[in-house]
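Appendix B. One record, verbatim.
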Amino acid sequence: MGEILNSSCWATPNKNITHLDKFSSLEDIDLSADGSLILRVLISSVYSAVCAVGLVGNLLVFFLMKTKLGKRRRKRSVINFFVVNLAVTDFQFVLTLPFWAAEAALDFSWPFGNAMCKIVLSVTVMNMYASVFFLTAMSVSRYWSVACCVRGGGARRRFTSIKRVCAALWVLASVATAPTAVFATVTVVAGERLCLLRFPEGHPWLALYHLQKVVLAFILPMITLSICNALLLRFVRRRIVANTSRPKRRSKVTKSVIVVVLSFFVCWMPNHAITLWGVLVKLNAVRWDKTYYMVHTYVFPLTVCLAHANSCLNPVLYCLMRREFRKKLRNLFWRLSSPAFTKARASGGAVDRDTA
């Protein structure tokens, strides 16, 4: 898949490489990966599955937010506002996956033209940044709302500030995506049309682009997530430790924090670790060798799939795991599966709320 996670393009034509000695530069290796049939089928299948699950999950989040929580509560909840923005980013993100699945199925050759290359690649990268930014903001907001008591009369001001924060995060994600929008292009390499980035100055710019992604999309968010959730755990334990009647509450908060931090780390760390390795190679801080080639060719695509799976996990972690959402979801499924509802739908009539 193009440039979302490594703009030197791991997704490249299926060229069987038997003599690594013939490559004189890192760029040659980056543009000559071995796209084996099994790897391509696996990538296409994962992209298709993530797209399907992500669409259903995020559409369900939209539905629950719009119809089940109530207008007044939906407008006042800071976390819910972040959840909606996160669902928007993940929804837009998964819409690009069919393009990357088709690219993988076609031996990583881009069939959609130069304009679509710029659009799809830019939308993919922008929503990758936005998703990470909103996840980070949610952790900060969660700690702030728990640790700091709500002051009377401040709800409207806080919600207005959150709107501004969300707007600023969208702008920041757009700015971080600007190099992708400018330099994304379809380039013919080894007879194949590839959608990738072409910087005019070569490796130094490409390395800086990758370094920006690692810092903004992983290192800083991971540090912020860890600190905020650690402070949240300490606060909850101090407040609840003296209350022996609420050990389950403390246990739930602890598990929730661990799941949030670990899911982000597990999904994104492998990809960013290999990307950082590539940055060091491009800056001549680490030697390029056969190990880098093998990892970049066969392991890196799997880390991309793992990172994409985060778009499926977000609706579960930040919406469907909450008790209020689970209750509304159970009520919705019960209504849809009840005999009265089924009979009414079949006859075109209305459902009696007392019986359905």
